[in-house]
UniProtKB/TrEMBL annotation:
It comes from the Bacteria. PANTHER family: HISTIDINE TRIAD HIT PROTEIN. InterPro entries: Histidine_triad_CS (IPR019808), Histidine_triad_HIT (IPR001310), HIT-like (IPR011146), HIT-like_sf (IPR036265). This is Histidine triad nucleotide-binding protein. Pfam families: HIT (PF01230). A motif (Histidine triad motif) lies at residues 104-108. Residues 10-120 form the HIT domain. It comes from Azospirillum isscasi.
């Protein structure tokens, strides 16, 4: 069953221009901006302009053009940040077990330092 999208989540409000963001890139299908609480020297969020709750929702419902548009934007943002070398990490939290806080799909782009292990063993 499709997840219900909350149109008042903070990223929906950024997309509507109701609250500001530090914009990095805007394309037809994606918006990228600096995370408000950066966890690395570069911490940028890339979001689709469409109303998708998370990567599960997006991968099920988005068009090929929207999917390409989002991931092209991720690559462009990382290259623009000078991170293609020596490298970067992308991450997307999906749902409760992943501690997703904002219910609009976002791809985190982390760079600018050695990022350590991928995940804490548990
Ligand atoms: P997640 O836990 O994957 O849902 O991550 C949500 C991210 O959104 C966190 O890294 C927050 O710091 C970030 N965030 C929340 N509100 C804003 C905002 N208004 N502008 C930029 N980043 C935000």
């Amino acid at each position: 069953m499709a997840k219900t999208y909350d149109p008042n989540n903070v990223f929906a409000r950024i997309l509507r221009g109701e609250i500001p963001c530090k914009k990095v890139l805007e394309t037809e299908h994606a918006l990228a901006f600096h995370d408000i609480n950066p966890q690395a020297p570069t911490h940028i969020l890339v979001i689709p302009k469409g109303a998708y709750v998370d990567i599960d929702d997006f991968s099920a419902r988005a068009t090929e053009t929207e999917i390409a548009g989002l991931f092209r934007a991720v690559g462009e943002v990382a290259r623009g940040a000078g991170a293609a070398e020596p490298g970067y990490r992308i991450l997307s939290n999906c749902g409760e077990d992943a501690n997703q806080e904002v219910p609009h799909l976002h791809i985190h782009v982390f760079a600018g330092r050695r990022l350590g292990p991928m995940i804490v063993k548990g």
